[in-house]
Amino acid sequence: MESPLHHFEVHPVIPIHVMGVDLSINNAVLAMWVGLAVVFFFFIVVVKNGVKTIPGKLQSVAEISLLFIRNLVDEFIGKEEGKKYFPFVASLFFFILACNLVGLIPGSYTITSQLVVTGAFAFGIFILTLIIGFAKHGAHFLSILVPPGVPKIMIPLMIPIEIISMVARPISLSVRLFANMTAGHTVLAVLFGLAMSASVFLGWLPFGFTVVINGLEIAIAFIQAYIFTTLTCVYIGDVIKLH
Amino acid sequence: MNEGSGFRQGLSIAFRLGIELTVATLVGAGMGYGLDHLLGTRPWFLVLGVFLGATAGALNVYRIAQDFQVEDEGGEKKDRSDPEDPSGKSD
After folding, report:
1. Does residue B30 belong to any structural domain of this protein?
2. What is the domain extent for residue B60?
3. If both were cysteines, with which of A46, A172, A176, B12 could B23 make a disulfide (CB 3.0 to 4.6 Å apart)?
4. What are the chain B neighbours of A178 within 8 Å (beta carbons)?
5. How many domains does chain B have?
């Protein structure tokens, strides 16, 4: 029986080595490109069909999902400020969602199950929030480390605590997405391994479960993409409003 | 669009709380360990880091839960200050 972690392995498809640096195109990169292409062509098709006053099926899906993200941005960042960040948040949501869903196709690769990928997203967002904070508030931004209304005696204690909770944000953001995707796909692989190794009389039971859990995984793909974008909005909003 | 909103928020909170608590403790411990490594004061900063990290985690969870509670009470914005909180103001 194959190892249930086998499908997380990265192996090169087109080996490229430039000056000792491994730039090979591997299955993870391919899956990322597929995710990108899915988002890109979905919106291209919507626009090519003509944006109508009475939307067709595809246009409705695109409009509802964009409106949904619009509401998210409005709620957590603010109506005026949110306009600047809407394109970033929307592309983040659609890319993660597409990658999660592409990963559910048997034989493909779940790019979001790699901590490197989610970590890079979260680290980028963390740096982005720092830049926004310092650009907007200058040195006053450091007051984010001192919650308002804290007595003076508590300040030396509160600053390390706030630093820790600040640093914990990108880590929890990346670990949440990575852990949920990895766990779900491992469960699927284990159940499927059971289905393949059991006799026909018993094999239908774990196989039935894989079908059910696949449905659950589709829901998880949406929910995790939603949580990731919500928290991105919350973090950007926190930095803009500064308490 | 707003029908599933409560359900979605509930799920997102369920996914957030546990990880928030764990990660903050780990980050505190990691920072303490790093400081020990730099200053050669093992194990004191590690001990301090674990406690501060756990505090930060608890504080984060408390804030998330508090935000949720205010939304739960539906429009009626409760004064967030806690009578038991000596600072008289929170968040």
Report:
1. yes
2. 16-66
3. A172
4. none
5. 1
pLDDT for the residue numbered A217? 93
The winner for highest mean pLDDT among A46-50, A131-135, A189-193 is: A131-135
How far apart (Å, rounded) are the C-alpha atoms in residues A156 and A158?
6
B38 occurs within a structural domain: yes
Task: Determine, yes or no, domain membership for B59.
Answer: yes
Residue A173, token pair as written in the block: 């953001």
Does B74 reside within a domain? Answer: no
Q: Is residue A34 predicted with pLDDT exceeding 90?
A: yes
CA–CA dist A231, B9 (Å, integer): 12
Q: Which positions in chain B touch A162 (Cβ < 8 Å)? A: 56
B91–A167 CB contact, under 8 Å: no
Does the beta-carbon distance from B23 to A179 stay under 8 Å?
Answer: no
Does the beta carbon of A175 lie under 8 angstroms from any beta carbon of chain B?
yes
**Mean pLDDT across B26-35:** 93
